Amino acid sequence: MTHLTINIPALSKASVDRAEDLRESVRLHAAWSTARMLRVAPNGEFVTMIGRDGLHLVTELAAGRDSAPPADAVLLGSFGGVDYWAMVDDVAANLIDGAVEGLSTVRVAGPLLPDGEAVLATTAVALLGWHRGAGFCSRCGSRTEPDLSGHSRICSSGHQEFPRLDPAVIVLVHDDADHAVLARQPSWAPGRFSVLAGFAEAGESLEETVAREIGEEVGLAVDDVEYLGSQPWPFPRSLMIAFSARAPHGATLRPRPGEIAEARWFSRSELAAVLHDANNDAKNDANTGSVGGRSTISGITLPGPVSIARRMVEAFVNAS
Questions:
Q1: Rounded distance between C-alpha atoms, residue 97 and residue 74, angstroms
Q2: How many CB atoms lie within 10 A of CB 303?
Q3: Counting runs of H as helices and runs of E as strands, what totals does the chain give?
Q4: pLDDT (tens digit per residue) in 216-255
Q5: CA dist 171 to 40, 132, 158, 187, 207, Å?
Q6: pTM metric for this prediction
Q7: 167's torsion region: left (phi>0), alpha (psi -120 to 50) or beta?
Q8: What is the C-alpha radius of gyration for the chain, rounded to an integer number of angstroms?
Q9: Each residue of 176-194: pLDDT tens digit?
Q10: How far apart are CA 31 and CA 157, in angstroms?
Q11: φ, ψ for residue 318 (rounded to 5)?
């Protein structure tokens, strides 16, 4: 039986300490003098800098602007013994004329940043995005205010709400031999393919979601559902939970109208050639901050290197 092992996605390398005890008020204020602040634009952009060892986030000493944690700042966690915070700001105003700083996003910078910095950026975009849409209590409709660390919001009636995540399965369907299914959504450019995905519904297990989504989207019945890994995907608040599943060899694909524009079986050798082309592209862009790594060989474009979908295709190609 084909067994896939994926490399840890760039946004899932959790080397940041997120322990709840870090959010205690006295500790936060005591650590503020050495804390760092990441400023994020409303559109999710932040400042990065290319150094001798690659791309890095640009942060600043938090106490340099504020004497205590601002009410609209969120604690990202502790990294290297230092607290990191984030807040929404006009990051373009922080660019230094004549220096090598520039604006980037999680999608672009995620696979290029060091592990901990990629996690910090992802957490910042996810938490700040949740706050933007959580200004009113879902129970009573009154206004909410963030707690000190930014990890919950409380309304005047005392109702407390926490950041919302939408669990979604992402599935590489294979035939237990040398072929896997990739598909294209109607909104995607021609030639862009990825693995299948869909959101879990109320009362449904993740394994049930896999079977339902694959049946709905391409008309296949699957078995041997196997968990592969997970990845935060803050666009705006998803958690991608990866699985592989087996379908009969040569089974006919029936793309669902309106959801799937095109679906096909790809051979392992075909995907290997596409990945080879994509990886060469990524090497050329490694020191530029460019997203890179998207192959267009034979007109086929695969997911970018920041996504868990890319890791899943790579795992299939490398499976024995």
A1: 28
A2: 21
A3: 6, 16
A4: 999 999 999 999 999 999 999 999 999 999 999 999 999 9
A5: 32, 30, 40, 20, 11
A6: 0.90
A7: beta
A8: 21
A9: 999 999 999 999 999 999 9
A10: 31
A11: -90, -5
